[in-house]
Design brief:
about 55% helix, alpha/beta, about 280 residues, Rossmann fold, globular, seven-stranded parallel beta sheet, 10 helices
């Protein structure tokens, strides 16, 4: 079945919806005929995206949300259910980036990334999954990880840690839904390069070590030149989720090229080697 057949008329909650991947998912969901509850902490950008979608005829509710705060996410759930009566699809996407040597990244930045990139997903699951289970009808939980959740990188340790954690959290949730016999499909998304300002925004402030800024600039240039647009990425995500896939891999060539060498390294217990594309 097509994504429009599966999701048309249903309700989606998307976190981190004010820009980048999240905004692309919101726009595509609106095009599928979904009702939308969009969450982000950036109020002005979030309102702009919701207004844009409403101008196209979509039903879109903007809810300013701090995903790291369990009470804020619970309020998001209450707002969504009050507005639309149910939530069929939860997309945990909100995340931030920090770059630098792992020991130089400030403790508060580490805490923020763990609280948003992992804690935000946990809070989303805790707020929405019990309601989905109580309803007992078909539903979807989609967690956005990264190709970086399978391939760790230097100079962005907090991102690697949280995206690896997202894989573990999502797989655990998948098993738990199977154990309960629940009609809830769980999927994990592993994007490669998607055009956004994520690496430019993550350039260090106080520390301007040339290897760090050079690495950030290299990744941003790769994203700008070779990345999918957020809309292209969203179309691939919704198509694969509608097909019932657990592993949602928008750019399979990138993953299939890199993963065998990593698998061989682990099975052979070889020392990791740094390869920069």
């Amino acid at each position: 079945m097509s994504a429009a057949t599966v999701f048309g008329g249903r309700t989606a909650v998307i976190t981190g919806a004010s820009s980048g991947i999240g905004a692309g998912l919101a726009r595509h969901a609106a095009g599928l005929g979904m009702k939308l509850v969009l969450a982000d902490i950036a109020a002005d950008r979030l309102t702009a995206v919701a207004d844009e979608l409403r101008e196209t005829g979509a039903q879109a509710e903007a809810v300013v949300t701090d995903v790291a705060d369990p009470s804020s996410v619970e309020a998001l759930a209450e707002r969504a259910y009050s507005r639309f009566g149910t939530v069929d699809l939860l997309v945990n996407n909100a995340g931030i980036m920090a770059m630098g040597y792992s020991w130089e990244i400030p403790a508060e930045r580490w805490d923020a990334m763990l609280g948003i990139n992992i804690g935000g997903y946990v809070n989303g699951i805790r707020a929405f999954v019990p309601r989905m289970l109580e309803r007992g009808e078909r539903a979807w939980v989609v967690n956005v990880s990264s190709i970086g959740g399978l391939l760790p990188s230097p100079l962005m340790a907090p991102y690697s840690v949280t995206k690896f954690g997202t894989l573990a959290l999502t797989e655990s949730l998948h098993y738990e839904m199977r154990m309960k016999g629940a009609p809830i499909q769980v999927s994990v998304v592993t994007p490669g390069a998607v055009r956004s300002e994520i690496f430019r925004a993550a350039r260090p402030g106080a520390s301007e070590a040339p290897e760090v800024t050079g690495f950030a600039d290299h990744l941003q240039a790769m994203s700008d030149e070779h990345g999918l647009t957020p809309e292209e990425h969203a179309e691939r995500v919704f198509t694969q989720v509608a097909e019932g896939k657990y592993w949602v891999v928008p750019q399979p060539d990138t993953l299939h090229e890199a993963l065998p060498a990593r698998t061989d390294m682990i099975l052979g217990q070889a020392d990791p080697e740094l390869r920069l594309g």
